[in-house]
Amino acid sequence: MRTQTPVVGLLDSDPTDHLVTWVVGAPDTVALEHAVRINATDLRDAQQQSIRARAASDPGPPLVLLDIEVLIDISAEAARGHLHCAHHTVSTPGTTDPSITSYVGTVRGLYDLIRDLHALAIADGVVLIPLAPDPTVDLVTSRLPLLFTAA
User: Fold this and answer.
1) In a domain, 47, yes or no
2) Contact, 129 vs 89, CB < 8 A?
3) Between β-strands 20-24 and 64-72, what pairing exists: parallel, antiparallel or unpaired?
4) What top-level branch of life does the organism fall under (predicted)?
């Protein structure tokens, strides 16, 4: 199910009410019921999984969402500085699993990655898995939607 713009969900660290908060776009209930979430080691793997999911789907192509572990800060250098702490924090919501695509950098870089994934039909959207809540969650929820509305 190709969407006009990518949908972006943020995995909640405390999913008492819901598992994912939609930060950009909000897929309808029917699309979510048939959505396929994929974990990929890299973008080639994501593309291959996406093609298989779309081909195997009946009656129509599903909403394909790529899981991405993220660590975001105001600069890529600052984000990389949090990497050591994120890997050693017990309450880290992400798994730091090498089989999951990851992104460490700025909100603008994440925006560009998501737009490219969508433009190349690799995924209709993403589910972001924060490796550390601060400042990742604040930056994703406050700045990422602004970049998509300005486009």
Assistant:
1) yes
2) no
3) unpaired
4) Bacteria
pLDDT the model gives residue 29:
86
pTM value is: 0.87
- For residue 54, CA distances in Å to 6, 29, 124, 127, 140 come to 16, 19, 11, 18, 28
Mean pLDDT of all residues in 131-138: 89
Give the mean pLDDT of 125-146: 93
For residue 30, give its domain range: 7-150
Mean predicted confidence (pLDDT) in 16-45:
87
Residue 2 maps to a domain: no
- Report which of 108, 126, 110 is spatially closest to residue 118, judged by C-alpha positions: 126
Token pair, residue 118, equals 């969508």
Average pLDDT for the chain: 86
User: Is 8 exposed, middle or buried (CB count within 10 Å of its CB: 0-12, 13-18, 19+)?
Assistant: buried
Domain assignment present for residue 1? The answer is no
